[in-house]
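Case study: PLD1 Phospholipase.
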Amino acid sequence: HTVRRQSIKRGEPRQMPSLPHTAESTVREEHFSSRRKQLEDYLTKILKMPMYRNYHGTMEFIGVSQLSFIHDLGPKGIEGFIMKRSGGHRIPGLNCCGQGRVCYRWSKRWLVVKDSFLLYMKPDSGAIAFVLLVDKEFNIKIGQKETETKYGLQIDNLSRSLILKCNSYRHAQWWRQGIDEFIRKHGKDFLTEHRFGSYAAVQENTLAKCLVSRAVEYEDECQCFDLQTTYAVFFPLLYFLRLSPEIFMKRPVVEGNRWRLDCILKRKA
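Here is what the predicted structure looks like once written out:
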């Protein structure tokens, strides 16, 4: 605390703000607006103090993480701690005991909802443990009958059934409604099948389309698709478009890495 006090910049608030002393049950209805303003001021002052703003309990209460406001990841959905059940992958060979409960383990994870995917992170390290894509089979179920778990929540897509355990039925309903409304609003293009069976909607007049067309023309001029063409054209193109070479061009992922972009380019080369 001595080091923290010495490191605080002048002009920064140093004193912990106080909450109203009056109990909620004794507040009259006409005083609700002023009471709300007091709580807003309290939270604002807390967030102006770096020591409390960066405290994990504060971030959990507000529902934010290190991924919340990264523009390239899309708009912010709801976030929070959940208990996640192991298994649920729909890829043959990954489940050691099939549907047997002997394999199930429960782990505490931080769940993040975005427009085209959900992910969960390990709370101790912040490492992303799994990404669940929004696709045409995306669906949410709730209840013990559907999930075989008390206060359970099941999120399905083409490649996995993710089982979550909540504190109460109301908590599970809050997650279900929050995820469903957010995805329906921001990720509706991924919920239906598009031209040529694609998971993504057609985007007209994009810079990417022009660059890919030029790359194809370059390939035709060379009359071959050799390793030199790959390095000279396609890898700089991927860098310019900020595309990961590890992105899967065909979903769901049921054939190993065959349809991963770098593997496709390697086969072509």
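For the exam, be able to explain this: The longest strand covers residues 106-113.
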